[in-house]
Prior knowledge:
The chain is an alpha/beta fold. It has helices spanning 2-10, 26-37, 55-58, 78-89, 131-147, 156-165, 191-195, 215-223, 226-229, 247-253, 268-277, 292-299, 312-316, 328-340, 342-355, 361-373; strands at residues 13-16, 45-49, 64-68, 93-96, 109-113, 150-153, 173-175, 202-206, 233-237, 260-263, 280-283, 303-307, 321-323.
Amino acid sequence: MHYDYFCKMNNKIAIDVRHISQITDGLGRYVIHLINHLDTENCNLVLIGTDKFPIKQLVNPEKFEFYNFGSKINLFNQVGRIREIIKKTSAKVYYNPFIDPPMSRVAERCVFAVHDMNHYFISSRAATDRLHAILYAKLSINWSGILYDKVIVFSDFVRNDLANNTFVNVNKVNRIYHGFSTFSNNCQAELPSMFGLYPDTYILYVGNNRPHKNIKNMIDGYVRSNAFSKGIKLVLAGNQIERFFNTSDYVAKNSLQNNVILVNRPSNEELDWLYSNCNFVIYPSYSEGFGFPILEAWHYNKLMVCSKSSCLPEIGGNGAMYFDPENIHDISNLINEAIGNHTIKEKTIAEGKIRIAEFTWEKSAKSHLDVLLG
Length: 374
């Protein structure tokens, strides 16, 4: 018993959740499911967070100690404060699941995650239009990649991106696929009237409108497709940030208010209903680091129609249909095929149902623990 206790204390892991601002986006869901699935029989967990984020209510409180960072996050105070918490808790491992780790070692073993490289480039792949954010991402990834012991990524595409575009030693980089879990089992009956939607009458996009998400080409391709002429709507469910691409203005200027429906910051229950009742799911990104909507479409037995760029074919395999995200006519043609070719549609859905079994949080959490504990 004393030996087991010593081993657990020696395997104490501090996970930094300060940057998690939304529980329904990919990063928030990743952290919550990872913590809930980590095997705490052989390790102890410490969460470094803030009182503003309700992670304490979303994960099993018996699995971790919680320490409030206690002050505004900035470059100048985070290293000292994290080291203070690490020392107080006797944590041996520090894991930052965000792209913005402290650019200094704060524990005996330090690991951080790179979900994608979309903040790293000035191009259509960019997740931001702010030059200072891009420059900071370049500095952070390269410097921390040199100082830290390991880097976790979630696709081979991102691993290759790091190898080809940074100074990070590729031998430090470990690819771990995400798992999958449902949003909710509670499809609320009042939701159809709330959105003016009915089963099979709309195409679903889930995500925000950052530049790399390729929203304009998706809308333009939809308008040129048979889906538009047949009255099938396009639903955009996610956080719409006006300074990137003002989706509502673009919809209004093109008189598409009755065709393109915006659902801003949908709840888990709303996402559950939207996935359950859509005709198919579309994912037009120029670049992604994994692609949760692919797995979500499979779970709901829906066809995934997505971009053939970045990691999406790696994750989707034969369980998706692919288009060129730069080519509006290609997007339009594939939408036509998705609503018109039922044989290919059913075959692709069946492939997705087989493939989803490869992505489990149990497998992902075990691989994380192997990397974190070395």
